[in-house]
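Morning!

This is the sequence you dropped in the shared folder:
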Amino acid sequence: MKRLFVILVVLVLVSMACSFSGNEPEAQPAAQSENRCGDGVCDGPENTAKCPADCPAAGVIASGVDTDNEANTASEEQPAPAESSEDPQPENGYRYVSFGGTIITTLNTALMGDFTGIAFEYSGDYQIELWFPLAGGEALQQRNTIALTEFKDLYFDSTPCVWELNESAFEPVSFELEASLNLNGIQEGGQPADELVYQLVAIPQAVIGGVVQCEGSPGDFSDPAAYPVLMTWFMQGLTNPIRLNAIENNRVEHQPAGPTYFVDIPQETLSYIIVPDLNTP
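The structure's back. Tokens below.
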């Protein structure tokens, strides 16, 4: 009887051991990548930003995958903002207009009548430089000169003389203009252009002089009429359509200037640009 009891106890213990062994959970196989978000594997192009289900925030382990080893982050994949390809427009600077040429005066002999004596014709080179605000308007600064280049003597029923000018007669003389620049203020060829308007403020008070020899008798002379005749052209209000960054060539042919003179300007060259300050070019 005692032996039978021992055998029963052994059988019960073996049965319980088998029961515990059968209920023990089996190890789950690792998730297989299906190359898509939601397959439980953080791989390929997936990261926290693209697939938080497979790739939790750094340091959290899900489905056996440690996302501390993420190769890319959302910030790294965002392209840097593109820089503007356009250069900013200058906020400072000046509109610089310069022009110059040779002015030639000739007497209108048809208006001389029965004039007798000596008359003169003059030629000179002029250069005008004007600085305007970017918004246009009145000139802020200017630098203008004219210099005598030729002196001719004409005789009407009188004895010719020999005229020799002093070297100082050919030195440049400064003058001032009343000048303004009106942006898009005029039409030229059906297109808007900036309008340059200018006029002489005052005739330069310069006198040319030298030595004259008439009938073998030399003597000093002075001529205050040279610059009033040369500058007559600029006494009128002149208007010129101009365009930025363009070089223009103008011409004046035998235009009346004063009661007895004509003016010719074979070529006047004009340029119009933006400069950074009042000391350029």
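Headline: The chain has two domains: 36-72, 94-275.

More detail when I'm at my desk.
O.
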